[in-house]
Amino acid sequence: MNRKGYWIGFILFILMASILCAQDKPSPPLLNVMDPDYLNRPYDSEKATIPDWQARWELARILSYVKKYQESIVEYERVLSERPDLSEARLEMANVLNWMGSHEKAIRIYEEFPSDKLDDRTRIAMADIYLEKKQYDKAIALYQNYLDTHPQDHQIRAKLADALSWTGKYAEAIAIYKKILTQVPNDIQIRRKYAFVLIWNNQHDSAITELRKTLDP
Amino acid sequence: MTVKTKQYLAFTVIMVLTMVLTTAAYRLTGRKWILYRNGESLFFAEQFSEAIPLLSQAIQSGVKRPEAALYLADAFMATRKFEDAMSVYQALICQVPDHEAALWRLSGLYEQFGQFQDALTMADRLLKKNPQDTSVMLRMARLYQNIQSYAQAENLYRTLVSRVPNFVHLQMELAETLTLQKKYTEAALLYQDILTNHPQDRSARIQLARMLFWSGRPDDAISEYSMALGENL
């Protein structure tokens, strides 16, 4: 090999060596394959740290289920003093007030909420309170609204008929009772109420016929 | 100039030329490796956003090292680009089906996105490879819980509790699985056991209270809630 060949070989060797060395440079160690902390971590950090208000809210609910209403209200008040933004808890407290007979307090809370924020059960509870307070127009509006989406609920339809009859709207009430009786012809109580409204509307003969149907033959 | 000086000069020129040529040749032929090394350095310096384009280009240029894809996916994770990370992990698993880190992280991502069955598939592959790995077992138990396969979850949790008996959260998770299966008596015993050893564990007491309520013991539940809240009703 002549001198020129030697030099070319030398340079090629240097070039290849540097390229190969660069490729084979050892990498830094891999990140841990498994998460070593995973085993130490509770799954749901929210579950691991249940705040007082949350536990108290659950307690308030259970107290209401076992009819310890007074104690339940105390807990709801404590929850709401810590978290006044919890409108759901406030509504639940209103329900408890309603169940324990504090209708005035309950309705005051219900009325704080826009109608579309209230569920059906709450709206019916409100209507029932209005009925009791003889605020029939408010009750009627709520019952009608509810029946738009629950046309098969005869119990509520009967309450609507009652409310209409108590406001002197006998014809409307009679029409509703008739409608209910086509669906539940054997409901004696509905038929008797129907008969009374017929009497108030001076339809005595029809009333007699209807009342006879409710008595044993 | 003496002959010796001329020789030194020639040698120096040759060395300098060699250096220049080596660098130039490396830049020409090893561009992908330069991208990779730079990306890797940025990744380890936790400059993830800067590392991503370099590692992507390196992979596109033909760097086939699994680490390159792993770093890229991890960088996507670090920058919260989870879907990009997912596709890179998936590609990496196609390339190296038993890549443990990719399987682990992809199962975590699937879990995060609610794809529990896919997460289970990945974790199961990992568990077959490392049957004693308690962290994989735990993930699988949680995944089974999520898809409401409570019996499988319970089996895994029982194994975990026997292997790592001092981890309260594992006992709590087992108790929760038992509760979900309406095995209330066993769950109650487990909670009581936890509370005997850790009477101040509020979460355990509240979970016990919930379980008692669901099992139809509201009065006992009330008493546990009160204790958890530090009160006596």
Which key features would you list for this structure?
heterodimer; A: about 220 residues; mainly alpha; Serine Threonine Protein Phosphatase 5, Tetratricopeptide repeat; 12 helices; B: about 230 residues; about 0% strand; elongated
Written account of the structure:
The complex is a heterodimer of chains A (about 220) and B (about 230). Chain A has helices at about 5-25, 45-50, 50-65, 70-80, 85-100, 105-110, 120-130, 135-150, 155-165, 170-185, 190-200, 205-215. Chain A is mainly alpha-helical. Among the domains of chain A are: about 50-115, Alpha Horseshoe (Serine Threonine Protein Phosphatase 5, Tetratricopeptide repeat); about 135-215, Serine Threonine Protein Phosphatase 5, Tetratricopeptide repeat. Chain A is elongated, with a radius of gyration of 38 Å. The model of chain A is unreliable at about 25-35 (pLDDT under 50). Among the domains of chain B are: about 35-95, Tetratricopeptide repeat domain (Serine Threonine Protein Phosphatase 5, Tetratricopeptide repeat, Alpha Horseshoe); about 185-233, no CATH class. In chain B, helix 7 runs antiparallel to helix 8 (about 135-145), helix 8 packs antiparallel against helix 9 and helix 10 packs antiparallel against helix 11. Chain B starts with a helix and ends in a 5-residue tail after the last helix.
